[in-house]
């Protein structure tokens, strides 16, 4: 596969983010002989979320723009948390987002090479087998203000270390009995350099290697080697690895091998959600959401099911930009991006979410007119469809008020409004049940207003959407609010509570008896529509024959446009 269409290489004078600036400078100076090789290196221990999308756009985007290569690499070095299921899902999600990788690699395929290099390090006197248990190792590591204590096993001979390390690999010792540590500096100001662990014993089946190994490399030991083996030039990662860079460099400096540059950028954070696979897993296993693809989840699966398009997510990542310092991005910006894309691409339909019957008393009982409705005013190529009309229609309950306040311009007794594409109608009265709830609204129509305008030029203040009762399809519609009630869930934890206490208890609402136009009868899962006046909606895979289910992606009201205007 190729990295996709090469976008024009950035020209001198283009305003680049700091990562692209580094790459552009390196290309100009010929540091890597003009090569640009990046990688996206997820650990297959969960589904990708929108934070990963930012990294994907950066890693693949840079390769595209600079005519380089971007590898997909699974950092599958921990058998206890990783599964083949996640590998497949991650590949699907990267493709869905619109990217194609050059090479597809697995860190576990390099285990033999890593083992050889670890032996080399032992031979150089720069690694040793330690018998201390994990808690003691961390206790003896010291603090930011005090140096660490050397392990009593630090001075083992090369021969003894080689023997013990081989026996670790051979499976002679139980989990936790021994580790291999780099022998660097127990007094280093950077704690990561105080004899970090390189291998631990884990007797667990690996999703690709099976039982071939019972020693597994740590992230720091493995990651730089993976990059080096693949000839990566720019190893782009998130800020939490900044402190690990000296160790990344130290390991690579010990060998005569390719030495990529690690560059850290600020991870994406978004208001009203959490972006951490561990926390998202907890939401799934704790039953707080229906699964990884719950439409409230910030996973790519969840966003897709909710109706977010890859174009919108990529646009959002581009607008958020790439910076060195952490920030909290606004959820309304993401919503703005999806509105922009769906406004241009989604077909319009009429759907009544909270239906009440509207009876046109002077319309023929057997009237079966149809009206042409434009599919997308922004896209003439989308054409039109016909919408059946009739004597009995469904309209939104909220579009009628018996006793309207001054600013309510929709239907009310004696008032005339437009039915979209059809006629002007005037309300003549209502039917109510014993509890006083309105069961039907009566009106008359003016046959001279076919198409929606009056020959005498009289104006109405409202246009209502509607669905003909006879041919309407009953649908389920799921409405969503933010998953968390707090803008920044991590900072809103109540005293004595946990981050789960900041979940929004009303984040999902199910409307089971919506009435939608017949064209939606068998819409394919994941198709996106605009329901006129109601927002953007996406067909849920829970749909069954004749009973579609829709997720509301967003309402039509663009709070971001307002926010950014108010802000100047
Ligand atoms: P999480 O913390 O959610 O478990 P992770 O960092 O453990 O994520 P990895 O599978 O290691 O997940 O991530 C793969 C790549 O995606 C890494 O390069 C990582 O830096 C990047 N990444 C992860 N989270 C974000 C984020 N919120 N914003 C930008 N990039 C991210
Ligand atoms: Mg990680």
Order the strands across the largest sheet as they lie in space.
Answer: 10-23-24-25-21-22-11
Number of strands: 25
The fraction of residues in strands falls at 15-25%
Structural class call reads alpha/beta
Question: Can you walk through the features of this model?
Answer:
By secondary structure, this protein is of the alpha/beta class. Helices cover 25% and strands 21% of the residues. The chain contains 13 helices and 25 strands. Strands 10-23-24-25-21-22-11 form a 7-stranded mixed sheet, with helices on one face. α2 crosses α11. The two termini are 44 Å apart. Bound molecules: adenosine-5'-triphosphate and magnesium ion (MG). Residues 41-43, 51-52, 54-55, 237-238, 267-268, 275-278 line the site of adenosine-5'-triphosphate (ATP).
Short précis:
This protein is 25% helix and 21% strand. The chain has helices at residues 18-29, 50-65, 84-97, 111-123, 134-139, 158-170, 219-229, 245-253, 277-285, 300-306, 310-320, 331-345, 559-566; strands at residues 37-40, 69-74, 104-106, 127-130, 179-182, 197-201, 215-217, 234-238, 261-265, 347-349, 351-352, 355-360, 370-374, 384-388, 392-396, 416-419, 424-432, 438-445, 463-464, 467-468, 473-480, 508-516, 528-531, 535-539, 549-554. It has a 7-stranded mixed β-sheet, with helices on one face. Strands 19-16-17-18-12-15-20 form a 7-stranded mixed β-sheet, with no helix packed on it. A 4-stranded antiparallel β-sheet has the order 4-5-6-7.
Blueprint of the fold:
Blueprint: H1 18-29, E1 37-40, H2 50-65, E2 69-74, H3 84-97, E3 104-106, H4 111-123, E4 127-130, H5 134-139, H6 158-170, E5 179-182, E6 197-201, E7 215-217, H7 219-229, E8 234-238, H8 245-253, E9 261-265, H9 277-285, H10 300-306, H11 310-320, H12 331-345, E10 347-349, E11 351-352, E12 355-360, E13 370-374, E14 384-388, E15 392-396, E16 416-419, E17 424-432, E18 438-445, E19 463-464, E20 467-468, E21 473-480, E22 508-516, E23 528-531, E24 535-539, E25 549-554, H13 559-566
Parallel strand pairs: 1-2, 2-3, 8-9, 10-23, 12-18, 16-19, 21-25
Antiparallel strand pairs: 4-5, 5-6, 6-7, 11-22, 12-15, 13-14, 15-20, 16-17, 17-18, 21-22, 23-24, 24-25
Helix pairs in contact: 2-11, 7-8, 11-12
This protein binds adenosine-5'-triphosphate and magnesium ion (MG).
């Amino acid at each position: 596969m190729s990295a996709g269409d090469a976008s024009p290489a950035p020209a001198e004078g283009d305003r680049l983010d700091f990562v692209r600036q580094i790459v552009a400078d390196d290309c100009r100076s010929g540091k890597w002989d003009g090569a640009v090789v990046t990688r996206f290196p997820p650990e297959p221990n969960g589904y990708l979320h929108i934070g990963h999308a930012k990294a994907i756009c950066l890693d693949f985007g840079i390769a595209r723009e600079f005519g380089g290569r971007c590898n997909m690499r699974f950092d599958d070095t921990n058998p206890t948390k990783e599964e083949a299921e996640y590998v497949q899902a991650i590949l699907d999600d990267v493709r869905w987002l619109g990217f194609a990788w050059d090479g597809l690699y697995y860190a576990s395929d390099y285990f033999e090479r890593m083992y050889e290099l670890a032996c080399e390090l032992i031979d150089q006197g720069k690694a040793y087998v330690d018998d201390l248990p994990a808690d003691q190792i961390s206790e003896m590591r010291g603090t930011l203000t005090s140096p660490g204590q050397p392990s009593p096993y630090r001075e083992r001979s090369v021969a003894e270390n080689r023997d013990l390390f081989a026996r670790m690999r051979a499976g002679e010792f139980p989990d936790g009995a021994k580790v291999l540590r780099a022998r660097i500096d127990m007094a280093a100001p950077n704690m990561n350099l105080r004899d970090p662990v390189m291998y631990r014993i884990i007797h667990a089946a690996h999703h690709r290697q099976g039982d071939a190994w019972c020693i597994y490399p740590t992230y720091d030991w493995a990651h730089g080697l993976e990059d080096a083996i693949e000839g990566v030039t720019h190893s782009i990662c998130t800020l939490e690895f900044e402190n690990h860079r000296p160790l990344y460099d130290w390991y690579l400096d010990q060998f005569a091998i390719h030495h990529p540059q690690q560059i850290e950028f600020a991870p994406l954070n978004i208001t009203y959600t959490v972006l951490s696979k561990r926390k998202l897993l907890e939401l799934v296993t704790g039953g707080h959401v229906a699964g990884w693809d719950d439409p409230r989840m910030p996973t790519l699966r969840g966003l897709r099911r909710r109706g977010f398009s890859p174009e919108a997510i990529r646009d959002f990542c581009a607008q958020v930009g790439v910076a060195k310092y952490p920030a909290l991005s606004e959820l309304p910006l993401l919503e703005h991006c999806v509105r922009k894309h769906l406004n241009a691409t989604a077909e319009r339909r009429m759907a009544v979410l909270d239906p009440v019957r509207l009876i046109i008393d002077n319309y023929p009982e057997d009237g079966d007119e149809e009206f042409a409705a434009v599919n997308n005013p922004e896209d003439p190529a989308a054409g039109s469809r016909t919408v059946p009309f009739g004597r009995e229609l469904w309209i939104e309950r909220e579009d009628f008020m018996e006793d309207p306040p001054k600013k309510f311009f929709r239907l009310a007794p004696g008032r005339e409004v437009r039915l979209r594409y059809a006629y002007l109608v005037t309300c003549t009265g209502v039917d109510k049940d014993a509890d006083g709830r309105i069961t039907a609204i009566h009106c008359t129509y003016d046959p001279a207003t076919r198409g929606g305008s009056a020959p005498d030029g009289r104006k109405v203040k409202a246009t209502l959407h509607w669905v003909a009762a006879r041919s309407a399809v009953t649908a389920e519609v799921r409405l969503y609010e933010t998953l968390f009630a707090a803008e920044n869930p991590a900072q809103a934890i109540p005293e004595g509570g946990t981050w789960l206490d900041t979940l929004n208890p009303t984040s999902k609402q199910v409307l089971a008896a919506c009435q939608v136009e017949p064209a939606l009868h068998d819409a394919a899962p994941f198709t996106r529509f605009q329901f006129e006046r109601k927002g953007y909606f996406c067909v849920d895979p829970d749909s069954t024959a004749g009973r579609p289910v829709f997720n509301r992606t967003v309402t039509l009201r663009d709070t971001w446009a307002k926010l950014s205007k108010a802000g100047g």
